[in-house]
């Protein structure tokens, strides 16, 4: 099967040649460049989850964090907190993975990203057919696993997992289990 290749301009093209400030996460939503600093809770959760996922992938796929992904619209350019890339996926002519290479996306919510993570990304990820979308919410201390994406921008199934319980990522042909007992809730860092 020939992989589907994006023929629309990439949202990231607008940033070619631009020097961006360090320490900020840059994404493009509805054609607008959005820069936000990485929060401490986000960073600690990513730092705890990524090695668990990478170890269980055991070279059957890859994991990326805050890396540009091309989506089928020049209005959206996301760099997910954590993205699981399907085995055998190839980069496009720009050197980036595209939306159809994603088996799962995990986003850690911050106060400034709530609308993006729960609404805009939710809708786009579902429309693109990303099989598993996980929203990790340190404020509420829960992870929500969305599955069964629809082209109308919704997911048909969701499961809520409180911090402290195992988060299971149902990937094609295998499950990845992430221990969440080390995920900090908002206000718990000293």
Overview of the structural elements:
This protein is α+β, with helices and mostly antiparallel strands. It is built from two helices and 13 strands. The strands form four sheets. Strands 3-6-8-9-10-11 form a six-stranded mixed beta sheet, sandwiched between helices. A hairpin with a 6-residue loop joins strand 4 (69-70) and strand 5 (77-78). The longest helix is centred in the N-terminal third of the chain and has 18 residues, at 40-57. The radius of gyration is 16 Å and the shape is globular. Mean pLDDT is 85; it is low at 1-7.
Estimate the global geometry from the Cα principal axes. Answer: globular
How far is the first residue's CA from the last residue's CA? 52 Å
Oligomer: single chain
Number of helices: 2
Q: Tell me the structural class.
A: alpha+beta
How much strand content do the residues show?
25-35%
The helix/strand order is EEHEEEEEEHEEEEE
Summarize the amount of helix as a percent range: 10-25%
Radius of gyration: 16 Å
Low-confidence stretches: 1-7
| Biggest sheet overview | 6 strands, mixed
How are the strands ordered across the major sheet?
A: 3-6-8-9-10-11
Number of strands: 13
Mean pLDDT: 85
């Amino acid at each position: 099967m020939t992989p589907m290749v994006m023929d629309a301009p990439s949202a990231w093209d607008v940033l070619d040649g631009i020097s961006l400030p360090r320490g900020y996460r840059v994404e493009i939503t509805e054609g607008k460049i959005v820069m936000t600093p990485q929060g401490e809770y986000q960073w600690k959760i990513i730092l705890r989850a990524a090695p668990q996922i990478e170890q269980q992938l055991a070279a059957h796929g890859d994991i990326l964090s805050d890396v540009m992904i091309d989506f089928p619209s020049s209005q959206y350019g996301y760099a997910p907190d954590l993205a699981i890339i399907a085995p055998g996926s190839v980069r496009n002519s720009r050197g980036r993975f595209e939306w159809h290479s994603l088996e799962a996306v995990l986003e850690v919510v911050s106060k400034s990203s709530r609308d993006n993570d729960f609404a805009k990304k939710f809708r786009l990820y579902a429309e693109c057919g990303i099989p598993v979308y996980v929203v990790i919410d340190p404020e509420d201390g829960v992870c929500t696993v969305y599955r069964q994406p629809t082209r109308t921008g919704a997911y048909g199934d969701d499961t809520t997992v409180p911090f402290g319980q195992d988060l299971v990522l149902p990937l094609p042909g295998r499950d990845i289990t992430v221990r969440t007992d080390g995920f900090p809730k908002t206000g718990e860092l000293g």
